[in-house]
Amino acid sequence: MKAHCFNCGKDPADHWHHVVPKSKGGTAMVPLCVECHAKVHNRRSMSASELTKEGLRKAKARGVKLGGPKLSEARKKAHKAIKEAKKERNKQYWPIIKAIINDGGGSSLRRIAECLNSKKVKTPRNGKWTATSVRRVIASQYKDKEEQKVFSF
Predict the structure, then answer these.
(1) Taking 70 as the threshold, does the pLDDT of residue 147 lie above it?
(2) Quick one: 103 exposed, middle or buried, by C-beta within 10 A (0-12, 13-18, 19+)?
(3) Which residues contact 130 (CB under 8 A, 6 or more apart)?
(4) pLDDT per position as a tens digit, 16-33
(5) What phi, psi does 101 have (nearest 5°)?
(6) 120 and 128 Cβ atoms separated by less than 8 Å
């Protein structure tokens, strides 16, 4: 949004200055040109780079941790959280699948999926059950691959 400088009237006023500092709860702003904005902050010039560097320096002085997360660590953490959430969600389906198997209705993953669909059990995304989705629920209930092999059709 382009406006005239509140102080000198120059066009355009590229900076918006908080009348009351934002850190003190201020929300009202006035448009200022680069020169007038620099005067307000007792500076010769105010490039975006300088403003950013000073803001980061002040944040660091307040104890704010700068920089983003290490992506590889963040990815691993997110992957683990997603896996745990799926496992937790799949716990609600496991008793139903187990009952189908124990009642003799589950001679194959496809047959279990058909039983779940006929009982109108919705998948987590409200879709239809498939052999793959049944296999994933069963697999999520076992800690390692060796335990899963016991449960093969």
Answers:
(1) no
(2) exposed
(3) 110, 113
(4) 888 888 888 888 989 888
(5) -65, -45
(6) no
Contact 112, 118 (CB under 8 A): no
Backbone phi, psi, residue 128, to 5°: -95, 150
DSSP-based three-state secondary structure for 106 = coil
**Residue for token pair 């300088």:** 50
Mean pLDDT for the chain overall: 84
Give 113's contacts (C-beta < 8 A, 6+ positions apart): 128, 129, 130, 131, 133, 134
Q: Give the residue-averaged pLDDT of 94-123.
A: 90
Give the per-residue pLDDT at 146: 57
Let me know: does 33 contact 5? Beta carbons within 8 Å.
Answer: yes
- Adjacent-strand bridge partners of 30: 17
Alpha-carbon gap, residue 66 to 57, rounded angstroms = 10
The per-residue pLDDT for 153 is: 54
Under 8 Å between Cβ of 80 and 68: no
